[in-house]
Amino acid sequence: MKTKLDEINRNVYNIKNKDDYEYKIKKGLTPEIIKEISKQKNDPEWMKEFRLKALETYNKLEMPTWGPDLSMLNMDEIATYVRPKSKMTGNWDDVPEDIKNTFDKLGIPEAEKKSLAGVGAQYDSEVVYHSMKNELISQGVIYTDMETAVREYPDIVKAHFMKCVPLTDHKFVALHGAVWSGGSFVYVPKGIKVEIPLQSYFRLNSPESGQFEHTLIIVDEGASLHFIEGCSAPKYNKVNLHAGCVELYVKDNAYLRYSTIENWSKNMLNLNTKRAIVGKNAKIDWVSGSFGSKISMLYPMSILNGEGARTEYTGISFAGKGQNLDTGFKVIHNNKNTSSLINSKSISKNGGTATYRALVRINEVAKGSKCNVNCESLMLDDISRSDTIPVNDIKTDDVEFSHEAKIGKISDKSIFYLMSRGLSEEDAKGMIVRGFADPISKELPIEYAAEMNNLINLELERKYRIKKGMSK
Amino acid sequence: MILNETPIRTSKNYGINNIDIDDFSIPEIQETFEELNISGDVDEFTIKKEKNKIDLKYGNGEVLLKQIKNYSNVNFHIIVEGKKNKELQLEFDLTNKNQNLVDNILIEARENSNGIIIIKYLSSKNDKCYHNGLIKVLAQKKSNLNIIFVNMLNNKTENFTSIENILENDSKVKYNIIDFGGKNSITNYYTNLKGENSSNEVKTIYLGTSEQTLDLNYIVEVYGKNSIINMDVKGAIKDKSKKHFKGTIDFKKGSKKSKGNENEFCTILSDRAKSISLPMLLCTEEDVEGNHGTASRKT
Questions:
Q1: What are the pLDDT digits (tens) for A296-318?
Q2: Is residue B277 domain-resident?
Q3: Which three-class secondary structure state does DSSP give residue B131?
Q4: What is the rounded distance in angstroms from the CA atom of residue A369 to the CA atom of residue B283?
Q5: pLDDT tens digits for range B218-277
Q6: Of A377, A404, A409, Cβ closest to residue B287
Q7: One domain for residues A315 and A422
Q8: Per the domain annotation, does A13 fall within a domain?
């Protein structure tokens, strides 16, 4: 079987529309700029005050003293709010042609028809399209953009907005609180099972700008949902910033699966924060593929507050030339009989750095809890780097905790075996890498698994093309 | 006093990048330490009482290393020669009369030599004492050294240990560490596998009781090809004791075909005892095999 590397087309992610906006805030971060964003967004007073408080917190907090070097980030060079020339609509035909074309090429409308129960599409700082099947509306499911939620469901939003991820958590959460725009709000009422996934797609087109979408999902008692998040951007020469925030509330006996395929351009600093609070006998599954960005610092977190709460994390990151992907998972066991299962894989090649950084904390009250961590890193050459930095903090005796990690290259024996069956060395390596990523692919709906496999092929293609080029 | 920094930092909220000992001041050191017993095949080793240079890559922080440099009251340069497989034992007993021990021990295993060295720290009486020690091992080509390190100090004594091992081609250094004592027992262990086919095995057993804090920071850098590091750390904690284990295997460029294994198993015997571990694998070389495993559970 031959791998079909030539079928992959990177161009869809690199579609670069003219930087044609309705409004772009001036670069920098001052109280005046924050007030102007708030005015432009027609915020209620409480939200304006919240933004200004967040800016104060941002100015007080220090930059991270660990992880990748962020010195290339200069907030004076970033425009934090860009409103495209489009109002939010529920009809793709009403979306401006160039923006619609971009989402068409990314396959969003097509996916909506085939396999999604609802779609939100954000372009720069605003959601330009939002739609959900009538069947879900009649069941009381709410799926809308965050701005509409702030206006129409103020009590729910006030009770949950940045409560799961507090402003003081770290500097970029505070930044997010000050300049957030766009994102999705989902509420699934008690007992409602949303069988078909919802998807939000975030596209950043404008150069030297940032995207700061806020996703707030509440899955009420006994309900279930699969939410898919995708993101991409064309590549520019200067730094772009993504500092989104995802807050997930999985109430008692509820279930949420949160899947992400992240393919930001390689000038993007992706400093995103995702967190879930999980209730009694509830479960959250995270499925995460990180392929893009220049630097990522991304550590989704589950806080298992309810007795018997569970979480699973299945993640892969693929760090290529010029990329430093510092990713991982955090879990806090805060109640009895909670459990977590973490399965992380990373691949580094062409000088890329992949780091698995994690925290498992099992608190005194979490008696009878279980945690199993499995972490594998694959190095595809000797100019790359792969690190594993997990912290395991166990504060009770009644626990079963285990952590295993492996670092290594593709086994020579495996390559030899596949070559003996007629494959070239490159095809053999490609097949092994795809096999390495297979446990993650299996967790995704088939269309998204195909996209992830395409991204892996694309990265492999680039590696081998570079290698061949060097040998000429 | 901030000690035992990890080679790579992570979030400071996790409380494991270093250890901050705040209820402690460095005592004045008496000039001599007399409760020292040297036994075994003493005549088979060359033992010089001389101050050794302090040139550690890590170690237990500037302040404590400076104390060793300026105020050490026991200084040994032990030379192991020939394939005699002989045993030397150093036993230090910290008591009210010999309350503070600052020792600087250099062990030099010459080419093609082997030997066993046992270093014991005791506090036979229940006096509050202080230990700040350095063990440096230079393992020359084809040497083979077995070091047994025993910490049986009482739980009133502050205990700080810096260990550094430099291994040349085809050398082997094996450590058995029994780490039971000390109020705060802080160990910084560093090995540089600079030679090809070099091998370091470290087996540690620890026990934390009452309000002890054990902070174990083991760092192994692998430079030489075909080298091996096996780190196996096991122990139990009970009462209100705390254990921090920070284990790093760092495969440097050029360490092709090297292998590293790191295992830590902690048995927690009380729900007031706390275990934090940070088993790190760092890798800039493709052709290596690195594994680590940690586990905690009750009996």
A1: 999 999 999 999 999 999 999 99
A2: yes
A3: strand
A4: 32
A5: 999 999 999 999 999 999 999 999 999 999 999 999 999 999 999 999 999 998 999 999
A6: A409
A7: no
A8: no
Chain A CB within 8 Å of residue B257 CB? no
**Interval A393-441: pLDDT, tens:** 999 999 999 999 999 888 888 888 888 988 888 888 888 888 888 887 7
Please tell me the distance in Å from A4's CA to the nearest CA on chain B: 26
Tell me phi and psi for residue A172, to 5 degrees.
Answer: -85, -15
Domain extent at residue B161: 47-297
Give the Cα separation of A116 and A195 in Å (integer): 10
Least CA distance to A64: which residue of chain B? B11
Q: To the nearest whole angstrom, how far is the Cα of A401 from the nearest Cα of chain B?
A: 5
Say whether both A276 and A385 belong to one domain: yes
Q: Do A400 and A440 sit in the same domain of this protein? A: no
Same domain, A424 and A464: yes
- Test B286 with A359 for CB contact under 8 angstroms: no
Q: For residue B107, which of B44, B66, B52, B160 has the smallest C-alpha distance?
A: B52
- CB-side exposure of A437: number of CA atoms within 13 Å? 29
Maximum CA extent, chain B: 55
End-to-end CA distance of chain B: 35
Q: Are residues A348 and A449 in the same domain?
A: no
Beta-carbon contacts of residue B152 (< 8 Å; ≥ 6 apart): B120, B121, B122, B123, B178, B180, B181
Task: Please answer yes or no on whether B278 and A390 come within 8 Å at the CB atom.
Answer: yes
Asked whether residue B261 is domain-assigned, the answer is yes
Residues contacting residue A413 through CB under 8 Å, at least 6 positions apart: none
Report the alpha-carbon distance of residue A79 to residue A413 in Å, rounded: 52
CA-CA distance, A432 to A451, in Å (whole number)? Answer: 18
Tell me if B298 and A380 make a contact (CB, 8 A cut-off): no
* pLDDT band at A463; cut points 50, 70, 90: low
Q: Would you call A437 helix, strand, or coil by DSSP?
A: helix
Task: Name the DSSP class of A189.
Answer: -
Q: DSSP E strands: which ranges in chain B?
A: 2-3, 19-20, 36-40, 46-48, 74-80, 83-93, 100-109, 114-122, 130-139, 144-152, 158-167, 172-179, 184-193, 199-208, 213-222, 228-237, 242-251, 259-268, 274-283, 289-297
Q: What is the C-alpha separation between A34 and A178, in angstroms, rounded?
A: 7
| CB-CB neighbours of B126 under 10 Å | 12
Q: Report yes or no: B164 and B59 within 8 Å, Cβ to Cβ.
A: yes
Tell me, yes or no, whether A353 and A472 share the same domain. no
Structural domains counted in chain A = 2
Which of A63, A362, A396, A413 should one mutate to test binding to chain B, selecting the residue with the greatest count of B CBs within 10 A?
Answer: A396
- The tokens for B70 are 């300026």
Task: Decide if A4 is inside a domain.
Answer: no
pLDDT score, position A249: 98
The range of the structural domain enclosing residue A418 comes to 412-472
Task: Give chain B's domain count.
Answer: 1
Per-residue CA distances from B198 to A329, B57, B225 (Å): 35, 19, 8
Both tokens of A366, joined, read 């979490």
Compare CB distances from A387 to B8, B16, B295 and report the shortest one's residue: B8
